[in-house]
Amino acid sequence: MISKDDITKRFISYVTVDTESDPESDTTPSTLKQWDLANILVAELKLIGMSDVSIDDNAYIMATLPSNVNHKVPTIGFVSHFDTTPDFTGANVNPQVIENYDGKDIVLNAAENIILSPDYFEDLLLYKGQTLITTDGTTLLGADDKAGITEIISAMEYLINHPEIKHGVIKVGFTPDEEIGRGAHKFDVKKFGADWAYTIDGSQIGELEYENFNAAGAKVVVKGKIVHPGYAKGKMVNSMYIATEFINSLPRMETPEHTEGYQGFFHLHNIEGKVEETVLHYIIRDHDMNHFKARKEVIQKLTNAINEQYEREVITIEIKDQYFNMKEKVVPVMHIVDIAEEAMKALDIEPLIKPIRGGTDGSQLSFMGLPCPNIFAGGHNFHGRYEYVPVESMIKATEVICKIAELTAKKAIE
Ligand SMILES: [Zn+2]
């Protein structure tokens, strides 16, 4: 069906263009270099024969594959992001193609002794005998999410070249700046015009996700009083000790390193402290909306209790919601998950349906009116030098996209 060579070539042509995003920037896209790949993608979408190919002032790309049936079919969309994370460099990516992987250590970089080993990354053993694309150990790969882009474009090309596969209107959307949490911000859901969509931005083959965290950030500012330490008795208030009290009053086991599955947490990810002022940065996560609200209350009540104890406002807290669990927007249209599951089963892929311990563009899009579960793109070890993607998984993801299109058209008659 889809050739390994073609998909490998396409993927490599994308990952070798640096598209690192930048959280410090206020522009969209956050970095000018994202235009480099955006412009290539626009040209390629036109070249394969997509209609209404557009790119707006913020580098959001949209395109349409018209329906090839006469009956009415819901319009579906597929979405990926073309930026890569600022956590690790994406400049000068030099992909290594390892054919017929033997299940042993892969030397990414002999000079620096950087090894991708199944002793540490057991997932590798799932792909024995397959073709892996890895880094050279000095950069990330960018399978997150250029694998998704490769798969969507390859699927559209396949559908265009195989008109015997019947489908409704398909929309394609590529966004900048997902990795800095802004991929969906300027996504024009109305212009996109799909009834529902899928982000192709998951990891291992089979992943299908429609639940993610509810998320908030909390900034806790603790005020102390600085006095010369030699004359401080009864006068100095050391904000760092009060901050420690605050930290120790939250449940120690409800932290990322002690939780999994549906367990939520408080995560202290940054402290800046001096006697006069200490600032704590927390993120709060929970899949369950009631638990999520309760967590925000816990942290607020703790603030109040410490302020009462000191008989003044030693702590101020600012809690900001970041994103919400898409589940509540997807469950009422659960057939969109069922179709993806059915597509995978039809292709002998075992669906791995599990809650995301994070967020996706799809969660924001779901709350903007475009229900949007997430499907595997095939890569592993995102955001670092050990990132890799099996070519066979990319082909499977491409097939899943085609199959979803086909099933959606079929079900519209039934
Ligand atoms: Zn991603």
Automatic annotation (TrEMBL):
What's one GO MF term for it? tripeptide aminopeptidase activity
Q: Does the keyword Disulfide bond apply?
A: no
Q: Which co-factors does it depend on? A: Zn(2+)
Instruction: Give the residues the record marks as binding Zn(2+) 2.
Output: 144, 179, 383
Q: Which reaction does it catalyse?
A: Release of the N-terminal residue from a tripeptide
Which HAMAP family does the record cross-reference, listed alphabetically?
Aminopeptidase_M20
**NCBIfam families per the record?**
peptidase-T (TIGR01882), PRK05469.1 (NF003976), PRK13381.1 (NF009920)
Q: Member of which family? A: Belongs to the peptidase M20B family.
What's the protein name? Peptidase T
Species this chain originates from: Psychroserpens burtonensis
